[in-house]
Design a protein that fits this description.
By secondary structure, the chain is mainly alpha-helical. The protein contains 4 helices and 2 strands; from the N terminus they run αββααα. Helices cover 36% and strands 5% of the residues. The longest helix has 11 residues, at 74-84. Bound molecules: heme C. Heme C binds next to α1 and α4.
């Protein structure tokens, strides 16, 4: 589920994301092993709540970050987060 949304939103044009087709971008950090990472974007403690916020509104979390707001809705962000947490 989450991996389809990740594909549809083009997250892979900027991130390397295992298990997602064509997700081999190198603009942002690789998301392999994301489930065991301590911080999100070096700013937020890696909790599900914070990850939802980051995925749906990165510009609100960190104005000017190179990651754009892509219009991911909260339920979609939930599915995407669930997928990212499977990456150990
Ligand atoms: C235009 C490029 C771009 C796109 C598209 C993009 N990101 Fe990012 N992303 C970034 C950059 C750059 C960072 C690092 C931001 C920072 O550290 O300030 C980042 C950071 C992240 C992080 C934190 C990674 C870490 O190791 O802390 C996650 C999670 C993430 N992005 C998920 C996503 C998801 C999910 C999508 C699709 C909905 C997405 N990104 C789309 C560029 C992008």
């Amino acid at each position: 589920m989450g991996e389809h949304l990740i594909y549809a939103y083009g997250c892979g044009s900027c991130h390397l994301i295992p298990g997602v087709a064509e997700a081999n971008g190198s603009v942002g950090p690789p998301l392999q092993g994301f489930g065991s990472r301590i911080y999100i974007a070096g700013l937020l403690v890696n909790t599900p709540e914070n990850l939802l916020h980051w995925i749906s509104k990165p510009q609100e979390v960190d104005p000017g970050t190179a990651m754009p707001d892509l219009g991911v809705t909260e339920p979609q962000a939930r599915d995407i987060a669930a997928y990212l947490y499977t990456l150990q």
